[in-house]
Amino acid sequence: MPAEQAREIVVGTLEYVTDLRFPGMLHGAVTRSAIPHGRIVAIDTTKAAAMPGVRAVLIGADVPCNRLGPADVDGPVLADQRVRQVGEAIALVAAVDEGTARRAAEAVVVTVEPLPVVADPRTALSPEVPKLHEGGNLAGRIGFASGDVEAALAAADVVVERVVGTGAQEHVAIEPPGGVALWEAGQVTIWCGSQNPGLHRRKVARALNVEIDDVRLVAGPVGGAFGARNDDPMPVFLAVLAKAAGAPVHMRMTREEVMAAGPKRHPFHTTVRVGFTEDGDLAASDMTALADTGPYVTSGPNVLKTSAEMSVGPYRMPVARFDGRVVYTNNANAGAFRGYGVPQVAFALETAIDEAAARLGMDPVELRMRNLLRGGDRHGLYGHAVTPGLRAAETLAAAAADEWWVSRREWQRAARGPWRRGTGIAMAVKGVGLGSGRGDAARARLICDINGHVRIWAGPNHTGQAIDVAYRQIAADVLGMDPARITVTVGDSQLVPESGATAASRSMYAGGSAVAAVCERYKAALAEAGGPARLVELGRAEFEATFHLPDVADPGLIPPKRLGDHAPHLVYGCSAQVVRLEVHELTGEIRVAGVVCAVDCGRAINPGAVIGQAEGGVAQGLGFALMEEHRLDGGRPLTTSLENYLIPTARDVPEIRTLLVEGDEPTGPMGAKGMSEVVIVPTGPAVAAAVADAVGVRPARLPITPERLLEGLR
Amino acid sequence: MKVNGVPVTPPDPDARLLDYLRDDLGLIGAKEGCGMGECGSCTVLMDGVPVCSCLVLVCQAEDADVTTVEGLRRTALQEAFVTGQAVQCGFCIAGMVVSASALLAEHPDPTDEQIRAGLEGNLCRCTGYGAIVRAVREAAR
Ligand code: FES
Ligand code: FES
């Protein structure tokens, strides 16, 4: 079923938040730090404020509560004492047009005394390195061991050790962040893309010292998110500036601003040791990870939680240990990004399993298959019981049955000239929702009219995945109604009850379940009252329901009091992927010829949308594997625009065969569960396996650029 | 200059065509994803040829026939994008549809290779291009 707004989009009439125009509207711009680290000595706004057409110039001291989050390590709205990253916001300007605003932002004179730059996360914790925050450069740590890993590794027949790294990936949502804010009678409405309207409301209320009920966020339509619209400061900038200027303010970031100041996927340095018996049974795994969050904490520790849990993949692991740290640096601030800490650790684990398969002389599918968790098994690190709806073995089997895997040797032999051919396979798992102990919930509201037309307000919000369509389909299914007689509204914080983020693969599962629950209530009341008209007459035509994501019933090895610290999941989705590619042995160039993406998605409520998510995730995974890395030199960005930060084009992405491994998730709405994140995870390791198959070298770093590959071949 | 068949007289010859279309004419279909010719979300037709309107100055288009997504008449193509679920966030889609219409004008029955080459200048971060390529193929039928 197509997205609700698709018809308006194809003719160009849908207004995105950055397309909105209001009478008397001003335009905003941001003054940003040019250096990675320094002490702010003075900020002089007189010249900027005197420019014709400028209506407001703001610095940190003008923001009632100059904090983006509850803690200092969340950073200020506008840097006032120290800058810690190139592109950090220092001042905001509102002017009659965008050009004037940008020129005025340039005219703000910031005097900064440079400080030594913390550029290498590997040395960020050394005592001689400057501290970026009072508490030091450790932003978070998570460790867990399920037993004596050293003893288990010593007893293993084969131990593989891998030291790997993955780069900072930029989201590159095609719409740069922006929007409009408008104050009326002490209340503000902000039209700004957001994956988390509730969180953004709280941030705005806090920064401006107003009541949360005075802040309304209309979170779309937005041109892409992928995690970047979770921690985005844009709604706060808009609200602060519109208040100071006393007029509606429109603002949008340039692509260059997004490249420098927008969040990135956390770069990781990861070491893994995996032990096997000679028969190919997993004996133990031990992983150490170091994540670079840049100057502020944003999602860092939560990302690492997911890394820890997924560090053992979808495998049975007799003994496992994970030790991860997040550190502060003066590099780009990292944040939430599709996959949330899992692509990084899966790359380490999956390539280690491939290495072990080679050493054991076993087929990589067979080796994985004999170790996979079956539904209802216990988790490899935390020992909690996972949902019986996990279909890891079926998913791997589906990918491995594809002709591109089955005929890989014939295909390899048909290689011509300098182009060598290889095929790889990899597997991944990702939890659905925020995890146990986090109080994860979603809500829905329903009103019927006398003719039985149903209106539903539900969250999480739509940021491209047509989640509103799925809500409508679920409602139609529960109510046995024509979906055309149901209207669904998402993304407006005034109308939609707080439902948390469009994140953590939770929208379908949590939002869909809340919709199902509210429809059940309505249905029961209908049956009792005898029809919608009667309900309206009785004044009982309005319903609300809350769905709490279930925690694990048995937390395994996690002390119950610390459940939320580890946030293990009950429900997981998984994906297995086959990548076939060609490597030019002289230039190191890589051409991907095809990808098979098998995905364990529960019941696919809107199969076309699921396939779209799978293809989009794989394409983003190919970018992460082969070309995308936000690079810096001493804290100064080298990748500054789409001219030097390349993402896959229609020519780079091959045919993707999506295989939906369907089967009901017993706890999900209509049997569904989340799948949009896990599909980005196996792509990197599958590409690495295919490269190893083609040229005999197993890459240790993503992205696998031609230069890195040639270096490895030498 | 004509925009979607209507003669117009732009006030500022040095304005970017994209800004003129969006801000003066209210044709918001063309989007700005990069402002430097890299993403294709601002694609319009100039005398039938797709161009990045962020790179064109109004004075360079003085005598041109400009067609934006709002002025296209290939409904089969747009319908194929909708029914083929090729629209996710949709921000790239106006540019895609414009490029695809030029592609189909040149190759009424394009191969997959021709479709991918024709859309190479239009970045999409959501779809992985699969549904878009299928929609163009479908529209060509
Ligand atoms: S905005 Fe013109 S090509 Fe990106
Ligand atoms: S649909 Fe979102 S960028 Fe193409």
From TrEMBL, chain A:
<dbReference type="InterPro" id="IPR037165">
    <property type="entry name" value="AldOxase/xan_DH_Mopterin-bd_sf"/>
</dbReference>
<feature type="domain" description="Aldehyde oxidase/xanthine dehydrogenase a/b hammerhead">
    <location>
        <begin position="11"/>
        <end position="116"/>
    </location>
</feature>
<dbReference type="GO" id="GO:0005506">
    <property type="term" value="F:iron ion binding"/>
</dbReference>
<dbReference type="InterPro" id="IPR016208">
    <property type="entry name" value="Ald_Oxase/xanthine_DH-like"/>
</dbReference>
<dbReference type="Pfam" id="PF02738">
    <property type="entry name" value="MoCoBD_1"/>
</dbReference>
<dbReference type="InterPro" id="IPR008274">
    <property type="entry name" value="AldOxase/xan_DH_MoCoBD1"/>
</dbReference>
<dbReference type="Pfam" id="PF01315">
    <property type="entry name" value="Ald_Xan_dh_C"/>
</dbReference>
<dbReference type="InterPro" id="IPR000674">
    <property type="entry name" value="Ald_Oxase/Xan_DH_a/b"/>
</dbReference>
<dbReference type="InterPro" id="IPR046867">
    <property type="entry name" value="AldOxase/xan_DH_MoCoBD2"/>
</dbReference>
<protein>
    <recommendedName>
        <fullName>Aldehyde oxidase/xanthine dehydrogenase a/b hammerhead domain-containing protein</fullName>
    </recommendedName>
</protein>
<dbReference type="InterPro" id="IPR036856">
    <property type="entry name" value="Ald_Oxase/Xan_DH_a/b_sf"/>
</dbReference>
<dbReference type="Pfam" id="PF20256">
    <property type="entry name" value="MoCoBD_2"/>
</dbReference>
<dbReference type="GO" id="GO:0016491">
    <property type="term" value="F:oxidoreductase activity"/>
</dbReference>
From TrEMBL, chain B:
<keyword id="KW-0479">Metal-binding</keyword>
<dbReference type="InterPro" id="IPR002888">
    <property type="entry name" value="2Fe-2S-bd"/>
</dbReference>
<dbReference type="InterPro" id="IPR036884">
    <property type="entry name" value="2Fe-2S-bd_dom_sf"/>
</dbReference>
<dbReference type="GO" id="GO:0016491">
    <property type="term" value="F:oxidoreductase activity"/>
</dbReference>
<dbReference type="InterPro" id="IPR006058">
    <property type="entry name" value="2Fe2S_fd_BS"/>
</dbReference>
<keyword id="KW-0560">Oxidoreductase</keyword>
<keyword id="KW-0411">Iron-sulfur</keyword>
<dbReference type="Pfam" id="PF01799">
    <property type="entry name" value="Fer2_2"/>
</dbReference>
<keyword id="KW-0408">Iron</keyword>
<dbReference type="InterPro" id="IPR012675">
    <property type="entry name" value="Beta-grasp_dom_sf"/>
</dbReference>
<dbReference type="Pfam" id="PF00111">
    <property type="entry name" value="Fer2"/>
</dbReference>
<protein>
    <submittedName>
        <fullName>(2Fe-2S)-binding protein</fullName>
    </submittedName>
</protein>
<dbReference type="InterPro" id="IPR036010">
    <property type="entry name" value="2Fe-2S_ferredoxin-like_sf"/>
</dbReference>
<dbReference type="InterPro" id="IPR051452">
    <property type="entry name" value="Diverse_Oxidoreductases"/>
</dbReference>
<keyword id="KW-0001">2Fe-2S</keyword>
<dbReference type="InterPro" id="IPR001041">
    <property type="entry name" value="2Fe-2S_ferredoxin-type"/>
</dbReference>
<dbReference type="GO" id="GO:0046872">
    <property type="term" value="F:metal ion binding"/>
</dbReference>
<dbReference type="GO" id="GO:0051537">
    <property type="term" value="F:2 iron, 2 sulfur cluster binding"/>
</dbReference>
<feature type="domain" description="2Fe-2S ferredoxin-type">
    <location>
        <begin position="1"/>
        <end position="72"/>
    </location>
</feature>
